[in-house]
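Morning, I've got a small favour to ask if you have a moment. I'm working through a protein record and want to make sense of it properly. The fold is given in discrete form, as structure tokens running alongside the sequence. Can you walk me through what the tokens say about the fold? Thanks so much in advance, here it is:
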Amino acid sequence: MSASAKAFAKINIGLHVLKKRPDTYHDIDSVFHRIAWHDRITIEEADDLILTVSGISLPTDKTNTCYKAAEIFFGRIGKSPQCAIHIEKDIPVGAGLGGGSADAAAVLSLLNSMHDNPLSPTRLGELAASIGADVPFFLQDSSARVGGTGDVIVPVRLDLPYTILTVWPGIEIDTSWAYGALGYDSNRTREPLPDNMIGLLSTPRELQRCIRNDFEPVVFSAYPAIRDLKTNLLEHGAVFALMSGSGSSVFGWFEHATDVEKAIASLPPAYRYNLTAPHFRPNGNGL
């Protein structure tokens, strides 16, 4: 028996870090939206728990989120971990695109399906949350308004009529460093995304003025090439551009194919990029 699935990356359409919690985590307000950049996860039956990776070098032990996901799943259903997981890795690491979380969610979903769905969506979500804050989002296909530490997920209907150019400049950003660099304390709560956030998606230049990614100032200061990348996308016709997550990827929305071509031609050869077509839906469905 074997099964496989694509694990799609996400971008953050706005990322407001509201406050630092007493438990040292941070509350956020963001809209997560899937893009076409993806890994492929394949799982087969085996005598032990085996993890292999191609495309990008990654650890294949307990530090890998997919390994953790398999261990936790089998522990919950009371069986010894017996499966061979292969990750065809294409989503860059340390890019703010949620690749590791997407992969872990795909492992949970595939294993649950392969074992006749012993865990309800609620139980599967609990396992996902124990692996990482973003993992529960990737168990479903819809875009979502995400709050709390990433555990408050409200699906939203997004039908973006733009080509999304997502660019990784070859820089890996450590999320823990980025949160620490914000220098937040627990005595102040910052403003959330605007109430009319979803309505502003149809007026991207207005959206550019109303939302932000709170990590941009600290990341841009430490890595000016990422700031320059965002500027470059806007100068080449992007109607909206923002860094995703804690970096280092930057995405731009384009209305015209010629602008996309010019933006791509302007990128340094070492940069990697992905194009997401207008009206993209992961797996052809979702909200």
